[in-house]
User: Fold these one by one.
Assistant:
Number 1:
Amino acid sequence: MDGFPSTATQRLPADAAGLERAAALLAAGRLVALPTETVYGLGADATDPAAVAGIYAAKARPSFNPLIAHLPTLDAAMAEGVFDAHARKLAKRFWPGPLTLVVPAAPGGTVCELARAGLDSVALRVPGHGIARDLLARVGRPVAAPSANRSGRVSPTSADHVLADLDGRIAAVLDGGDCPVGVESSVVACLGGPPRLLRPGGATREAIAAVLGFSPETDDDPGSRPVGPGLLASHYAPRAAVRLDVTQIAPGEAALLFGAFRPEGLAQARAVETLSEAGDAEEAAARLFSALRRLDASGAAVIAVAPIPDAGLGEAINDRLRRAAAPR
Ligand code: TXA
Ligand code: MG
């Protein structure tokens, strides 16, 4: 019913053949759950927006939270972000391990906008689990991976937990046994100024404070706290005003379309982007942030958005668009 064929998910052993298969699936844009020392992650090629859209669809996430990009080495991670002195100290002390660093995205970074939820920052982690790092090295690209559970369920710490939630919705799970830490990584933002603890987790506050020389302030975690529309100041918001459920385009507005529907007045639009001609919500999600940026760049004062059904990822797309449309 939800577009997921109920073909069984492959359970891959964590040997050379299993790792090769898992890496090939990820490189082909498929979803593979992987063990880390904290919890199992639901992995996808972080450079491929279509693959990342698959994560949100499989988890049935109602909004686009920014995802952690996983890398096999400190050097690979440092190529994706801009590390200040705090971030470098934390990375050297805790990686590989249960710490995620949110840093400005590097100019030449490869983590796609959908994985970053349109932010200019990127969350990076080098996991402490040897099997995870082996897989990441074989993939050769950052792997986006939230916890491998359906939205609203508890995080999985075994391959059985993953299958209980996601069997038939993902290509494979790499079985690395039980996760030794069992809680998610600590998330620390190093975005200029003192580092902030966005989520407590596997790396203790005491250990983080010992590295920094002070205990970080705790901050709102945009991924775990409900935030009112428009209040998520760090999220990408178009410069243009956003108008939703539009059936009539005013002259000079930019138009964001979905499916076959054509609003009246379209010929007078300043710029037009179609998220998915076929009306496919996953394709639309993969294109959402780049389409918004292109329409913004057209210089239009208003982005007029045609109706998008709430089914599947449509709910997350509409959530994001409502935030963009909220008064600021
Ligand atoms: O242990 C873990 O961290 C697991 C394993 C699989 O690595 N992953 C995980 O991912 O817990 P997820 O998606 O469930 O949590 C990611 C957290 C969220 O709280 C999100 O808000 C935060 O990281 N985050 C990611 N990118 C961010 C950004 N650019 N700015 C602020 N917070 C960010
Ligand atoms: Mg989670």
Number 2:
Amino acid sequence: MDVYGLVGNPVEHSLSPPMHEAGFEALGLDARYVTFEPADAAAAIRGAAALGVAGLNVTVPFKRDALAAVEPDELAARVGAVNTVDFSTDPPSGHNTDVAGVARALSHHGVDPAGTAAVVVGAGGAARAAAFALAGSADSLHVANRTERRAEALAADVREAGAERESAGESGAGTGVTAGGLDTLVDRVPAADLLVNATSVGMESDETPVPAAHLHADLAVLDAVYAPLDTRLLRDARAAGATTVDGAWMLLYQGVEAFERWTGEDAPVDAMNAALRREL
Ligand code: ATR
């Protein structure tokens, strides 16, 4: 039996175990997915390697700490966060599937970030994943956050990664990246094609980080919040005629991407999605 798991704190209410176990079951794989709340994530990852654990996800507050215990791939190193560890190599490799989670959630809904004016609200872990997912393909990216200094720091990291891509001769380094406080949304959102809420505003509450008056029909809106699934932002966006994508799609696709890396199989997306939405 292969053992997979999630390292974080708290992880008690995580939706990853039912989602991954539904995937294992659908493919007939002899595997289990369990949760761990260690005090020290790097020590836990080293211990898991010694125990023969096959793969781990890493969540809040350990995504940065995990870098110390793995060989990060280029994306995880650029983002500065690891959410997936693969133990098939020694040392184990570290990946960031949150970035692909954003890209695949959008793609599933026919939203192509290429050439868009994109706005990410927030500057925490979810915002980092969204910003790195959009950088390189969006024409422009604006990061707006309550604490403006954090938005500027994230924008600087994304710009630096773009410069690295450019010097490596890779395409897609041309995204113009700007940052500001939440007061910049009034100008940015009406001119945007794509909006991602990566703040916690709307979680277990009926608040929205973006006033409804700024939303419009030519906008696609992804809300990283998934509890509730239908946030006030998404309801306002739908009322404005915008395309909407709920946060469970991001959660699903970061898991799908990890599942595929671990098992080498195409993930049974429908089974994993059904299990996730049953829990929500
Ligand atoms: P995560 O890693 O899950 O993204 P985080 O690092 O705690 O979590 O980030 C939470 C984000 O939500 C931040 O961008 C935070 O803004 P600050 O950087 O100013 O703290 C944002 N956020 C949380 N509560 C908010 C509120 N009431 N209004 C506006 N933004 C809020």
Number 3:
Amino acid sequence: MYITDIYAESSFNDEAIKEYLSEESFKKLKSTIDSAIPLDSEIADEVAEAMKKWAVSKGATHFSHWFQPLNEMTAEKHDAFLSFDKDGSAIMEFSGKELIKGESDASSFPSGGLRATFEARGYTAWDCTSPAFVKDKTLYIPTIFCSYTGEALDKKTPLLRSMEALNREALRVLRHLGDNETTKVTTTVGPEQEYFLIDRELYEKRLDLLLCGRTLFGSPPPKGQEMDDHYYGRLRLRISDYMHELDRELWSLGVSAKTKHNEVAPAQHELACIFNTANIACDQNQITMESMRTVAKRKGLACLLHEKPFKGVSGSGKHVNWSISTDTGMNILSPGKNPAENQTFLLFMAAMISGIDKYQDLLRFSCSGASNDVRLGGDEAPPTVISIFLGDELCDIYEAIENASEVTKKNSDNVNMGVSSLPSFKKDTTDRNRTSPCAFTGNKFEFRMLGSSSSISRPSFIINTIMAEELSIISDRLDKATGDKKEEINSIIREIIKEHKRILYNGNNYSEEWRIEAEKRGLLNLPTTVDAIEALTKEKNIKLLSKHEILSESEIASRYEINLEMYSKVINIESLTMQEMAEKSIIPAVESYCGKLARDISAVLKVGGKMKSSEDKLTLICHNLSGASSSLSELCELHKNASKTDNFVEKAHLYKDTVIPAMEKLRAYCDTLEKLVPKSEWPFPDYTDLMYRV
Ligand code: ADP
Ligand code: MG
């Protein structure tokens, strides 16, 4: 197969637009897309007609405004291209108005008080910067989603706004650096998506997987990930067959699936796309997650995008690779051959360093969520403390600038394997760091904190905004500078490093040593979503987001409420699921096994025999069974108390501080019981079945 033959065949990309639109309208549309000027309403009809013709040729009968509300989902409503002409005959129609704006009675999307149900009108508006696509007989049109009063109710709007803010502020700094050619700066993002694949039949036998996307019970299998034999391991046939079909589907939709491999945990895999403009990367990641699920279903598999489907093995993240590039083709975070002399690079990096240090809390918030709480800080996941890995070479350069000393230039050596038939190759100037939440990886930052199920929008728009702010401070200062600009820039860098170097750490972020060191340095540690979300109530953050017009005060307040409510809802469902599984499956199964065991023991006793080990086992099981029963009652009580609490802040705290510990207690008893009871008596598939029988 030639990938190029099918690539983007279902995407209304430039090529398709060119084919279906007049040259003049194409130019107008392109300049709208490239320079963020409003779309000429006259050509909207023409674009709609072209889009419809193209979509129909791809088998579409419907169109849908496709948006990303403030839950972890995408939303769509399908309308047929159906209309009647004057004579009452059916025709296929799609107008510019229908393309640009949609209206929906969207009162059941989370709005966090922004929209009372009596004014439930919401609007969707076409985002022409992200290509429309055809899937399953429907033309999908990427849109933003806002309230009747114009407040953003989605994830796309702040991202788009932040890209504009960063463009504006980056251009100002570039001018100060003597760059007069660049006219546009874009945020580029390349997400790496981790996921688990398990057998569908087994998946359907577990209520926790069905309802919560993760296991709430389960004792560790005899073999975990300690052999390191899954990471980059050979792809089993069933998995590689799945991956082929997924690639094909993604390619045809114009999603640039590039790298795939087995990940650290058994049954865990990864897919990375080639980076793209942040907004498009964000949409494409949503498409990727959806295709992962649907292809899995077709193949008799279940794709788990939850951050921590299994206790005790690595969870799934979504690494957000982030950089900024200019329309002149420069990647601003590329240090070039001589980083010490590259002021543009050093200044932008310094902006990043100060921004991340100042807004640790916002960045931490951007990766929060009940499901990621289970992952962060455990088995091979970044800790909940933000720091930056720069690598030795860059740290040396900044240290030299800080001390106004000479940079000792390190030439990277060749790697020679001592086998003459093997090529000798130049090694990178620094090694990688896989433990840092924000690692500089040579020409981009890799943010490793985000969870696998989340949209990349939140961290992307937060990083963009932080950068825009730091760059604006730098420009404000350079605007006023009278002396030598180069010198002034060096002073800025020096001051930033002096003030913010505490955020730099090249060591092992998973170590206890770092936990202690980070605390000494006064870095924030916000262990859970409930802690992290307070970032949205801090004056400095509200100021930041409203200054750059990313989110208004009311939009921030709504997100505060929505995120806390979402948190409580997730824990609520998990707790109820646990209660049901324990009460209806686990406890009855163990009781019935105990009965059987007791009968066997007494039968043997009757004939004068003895079953000592079984008696001991029965005692142990009964002990854990009564522990399970009492912790179940405790959980029910605490749950009732939390769920009936009205105040959403108090409620989230109750779930975190009372319900979660009770869930853990119940789980511990049940997981012990699972080990004591024969496999045939256990009411659902165990970890070995789930992780090893794909
Ligand atoms: P690794 O697992 O080694 O970190 P991958 O190849 O899996 O690397 O993923 C690297 C990701 O970074 C890819 O999605 C790639 O497209 C992306 N990337 C590369 N350059 C940039 C850039 N300039 N801006 C944003 N993302 C980038
Ligand atoms: Mg990778």
Number 4:
Amino acid sequence: MCGIVGYIGNKKAVPVLINGLRSLEYRGYDSAGIAVLEDNEIIAIKDKGRVANLENIEDIKNLNSSIGIAHTRWATHGKPSKENSHPHLDNSKQFAVVHNGIIENYHELREFLSQKGYTFLSQTDTEVIPNLIHYYYTNGIRDTDQFLRAVKSAVDDLKGSYAIEVMSKNYPDRIIVVRKDSPLVIGKGNDENFVASDIPAILCHTKDFYLLEDNEYAVVYANDIHFFDNSLEEHSKSIKSIEWDATAAEKNGYEDYMLKEIYEQPNAIRETIGSRFKLGEKCNFDDIDISKEYLSQVNKIWIVACGTAMHAGLVGKNAIEKLCKISTEVDIASEFRYRDPIINDKTLCIFISQSGETADTIAALKLAKSKNAKTIAVTNVIGSSITREADYTIYTHAGPEIAVASTKAYTSQVVLMVILAMYFAEILGICDENCVEQLKSDILDLPNKIETVLESADDIKKFAEKVYTEHDMYFLGRGNDYCVALEGSLKLKEISYIHSESYASGELKHGPIALIENGVTVISILTNPDLVEKSISNIQEVVSRGAKTLVITNQKLSNVNFDFIMNIPDTNSLISPILSVIPLQLFSYYIAKNKKLDVDKPRNLAKSVTVE
Ligand code: AGP
């Protein structure tokens, strides 16, 4: 999705802006552009294609300005083209704007402006914004606040979601920013300040951030930042220090972010566990305040998320139902928000989102709140939009995840959901303490066991080399293994573009087995000792129809004729997905590499889906 960067300070703006845009490439985009103030004129350089193309434009190298705004665009209104790329300027070229989000009423605003004589060069919704600013600027009272007031009047006319950055040739000492339902942060430096839609874009310059709230304005100067509420009343704002190391958002010698993030999982899990529990002590979540009285009357838990985060929710459901005996349902956020789900003040809703910016998940959360449910957000990104909406936020602390395909965020979400389930069970006082103690010990062993799984990466690589030219694959499992099958199948589709399906093994006979023919690849996950015999029978059914089989298991299998068995360490069934998903992450990765695909930036996908 779109990305924003801004700079004002004592350095040349262009390298800072380009660097920032490069850090945002992972979000997915199809065009890029910058605008700077040079000799009192706005110079905008933009085009469809990669950020690297911008850098090679000769004119850009001669720009010395120390104020600028920049953008990567993921097309929504109008195809990727130079005209549709941001920044957009008003007709008089006094104002330049970059915008993330969608302006829903842009047709009527365009109509209004056209009647006033404005013309448009692009098909975008964004181009109305600089022209509206110009309209209010020229029709407003002339005083020192004229620029800010014009931006505010324009923003008042907008319906939809937006993070907006504005620069004016009449005010070369400032950038104005505002947001609603789309993220925007301001990084504080020494004699310089930064703006970004995403912390990693400017993490190499500062760790001190202001997280802009919805409908909050900031006027950013090189040495100062002023914050205003929606009535343009000025207020002070506290700064947040982000613990992420700048190098955490770099590749550190790995060929791709995805591979790096797969290998970061032992540490990510250690960070997720953090001080949430120790052996012999109860789980503790300083970040939430849930009482026994409240939890005892909860009659339903909803876990709502999208994509991989939803798959983590499925594992969370199994843990909550097993340990807490509370009926728990998992739903896809885009379905949940439109199907009038049964929610009341006895419903607890948990929303999982790595980015904390997924539009559907945030909308689902708002819906749950409007129906008086208590809401918990599980996210990886500090200060992300979801954290402002939820009653409580729990952070996964997995560190920045840059690759579009989620890996370490998934495993840390799963760990966190299981710890949350133990925490609820301890509050309710209904759990078998020995069982929970054993589970805690198993969770603490996970980082070392993940390392063991990673040591077998070469075996998975070899299997991937054998099957990477195939067109269809199937993933099977029961219980938590089925949750992992869903995730393995999604990962494969996302980065290797191979069609794949995942099925609960028991469903095979109810239709999908008709698709199994000689040479088809079937990947089975088999970790639950209670279901091992049944699962083996299901795999035998596909073997006897000619399937090539990869089996990921922590069981000792004898007398089986599977093509490839990947052994992983044994652990509690509630957390087995954390180990069994890793060979599948590697499998997708190596298939994509064999197909020479861009693993980190798969086609058509964006890291955070901030529009519906
Ligand atoms: C995961 O590999 C995908 N990129 C995608 O399914 C993702 O999990 C989904 O879009 C949800 O994102 P979120 O966790 O940031 O809300």
